Amino acid sequence: MSDHPRVLVIPGYNGSGPDHWQTHWEWARDDCTRVVQHSWHDPEPGAWVGAIAAAVEAAAGTVVIAAHSLGCIAVAHWAAVADTTRVAGALLVAPCDVERVGVPEALARFAPIPRTALPFRSVVVASSNDPYATPARSRCLAEQWGASLVEAGALGHINAASQLGAWPFGQALLDDLIAAGPDPRFARAAALRDAAPWPCSGVSAAVRP
Fold first, then answer.
1. DSSP conformational letter for 111
2. Of 180, 191, 146, 170, nearest to 62 (Cα)?
3. Taking each helix axis from N to C terminus, what angle separates 45-58 and 70-79, rounded to the nearest 10 degrees?
4. For 117-173, what is each residue's pLDDT tens digit?
5. Alpha carbons 159 and 76: distance in angstroms, whole number
């Protein structure tokens, strides 16, 4: 088993093209593997969750997740039902609010969003002007998932249109997760899967780049 975790790159709706930071990471880093979905344009929750499960199973050892948008929601669904013991952490960038009014049907299929704590160390990265999730909604998701919240500034949906290139700040967050390794305290979180959803009664701790 390798000491260095495999980074599973999980894009969102329509995938991540050549200008997306996820693609840049795959080009620049030898520890990244993309989770390929059967359909990027007609996402089906069960299929997306199954692809994540297969990728984790296929990895040689410990994994760290780097997900974007709808990919973050798929990770939450997967974590609610899967054996997550090999996951050391997850970087969840711009999770898409699939419960918002007017959301496209293809995204609404992923509602409701799981609201129990993720059973591994996690960081939610939010943008102040994300058209797919308000700052308040991003804070709420971070709190419910038991994740740290990073407020990255006005970066839109933190996607190709944001023109981030290889996004050094995001890579620094990823490398911090890798360096931290698995946290044994999160082994208890699996027992919370059937607990009542956490209320959004406060604001998660936030850091800024």
1. P
2. 180
3. 70
4. 999 999 999 999 999 999 999 999 999 999 999 999 999 999 999 999 999 999 999
5. 20
* Element of type H or E holding 207: strand 206-207
CATH of domain 6-207: 3.40.50.1820
Helix segments in the chain, DSSP class H: 21-28, 45-58, 70-79, 105-108, 135-145, 168-180
Give the model's confidence band at 185: pLDDT under 50 very low, under 70 low, under 90 confident, else very high.
low
Predicted TM-score (pTM) of the model is 0.89
Q: What is the average pLDDT value for the chain, to the nearest integer?
A: 89
Which pair of structure tokens corresponds to residue 108? 């609404």
Backbone torsion region of residue 25, taken as left when φ is above 0, otherwise alpha when ψ lies between -120 and 50, otherwise beta: alpha
Return the number of other C-beta atoms located less than 10 Å from residue 93's C-beta: 30
Residue 68, strand partner residues: 93
| Residues 59, 81 contacting (CB under 8 angstroms) | no
Domains in the chain: boundaries: 6-207
State the alpha helices, DSSP H only, in 59-190: 70-79, 105-108, 135-145, 168-180
DSSP-derived 3-state class of residue 116: coil
Q: Is 94 left (phi over 0), alpha (psi -120 to 50) or beta?
A: left
